[in-house]
Amino acid sequence: MEELARLAGIPVRTLRFYRERKLIAPPRREGRIAWYDDHHLARLRTIAALLERGHTLTGIAELAEALDHGRDVADLLGVATPTEEEPVRLTPEELAARFEGQVTPENLAAALELGYLGTDGDEIVHISRRLLDVSSDLVREGIPLAEVLEAGKRVREHVDALADMFAELVLRHAPEEDLQRMRPLARSVVEAELSLALDRRLRKRDQRS
Question: How many alpha carbons fall within 13 Å on the CB side of residue 90?
């Protein structure tokens, strides 16, 4: 415990307090010896970084609990599942920096439930760099993260239906292995139709003004 506290740059009494608050996992014990490892040190450095960003210990404890109960990255990404998306690895403090002040336990739980986030040891894995970048851009534009996540949930419902429709169309006329090859065609249709729908929405707004 003394060595861990020294490496983390905190007093031993602070480390004991964090243990009592369950902010760090219990050590591995061999007889009367308690062993701490790099995961404990990483968690302590994360706590320090989040405290510097204005998070309270209560909020950090709630965030830690949400992450500890989140899905493992292997479950999130699947095994050998074809994907065009690039996962992104982040520390908890890097995630907090992306969404300054809005990484609350509620938003984190929503992102975990949507499957946007998974955990891999002390790292967080976002399933898609594109979604991460767009989400943080929207938040910087002034849209609350909670509303961005709620919109993502609604979009998920629609695109699941579109994916099912496209898969059924392809499989009626081609072997199943062609589905992966034809993914870019489906994406182009959706992007073009969304662009046209936004055009129609903007024209309606202009006509009313």
Answer: 23
Measured between alpha carbons, how far is 75 from 176 in angstroms, rounded to an integer? 24
Three-state SS for 147?
A: helix
47 CB burial (10 A radius; 0-12, 13-18, 19+): buried
Phi and psi torsions of 117, nearest 5°: -120, 145
- Return the closest-CA partner of residue 70 out of 40, 107, 22: 107
pTM of the model: 0.72
* Alpha-carbon gap, residue 41 to 110, rounded angstroms: 27
Query: How many CB atoms neighbour CB 76 within 10 A?
Result: 19
HSE at residue 26, side-chain half, CA atoms within 13 A, is 4
Q: What is the pLDDT of residues 59-107, one digit of tens each?
A: 788 777 777 766 665 565 554 456 788 889 888 888 888 888 788 878 8
**CA dihedral (131, 132, 135, 140) positive or negative:** negative
| Cα(41)–Cα(38) distance, integer angstroms | 5
Backbone angles phi, psi at 141, to 5 degrees: -80, 0
Closest CA to 156 of 183, 133, 127, 123: 127
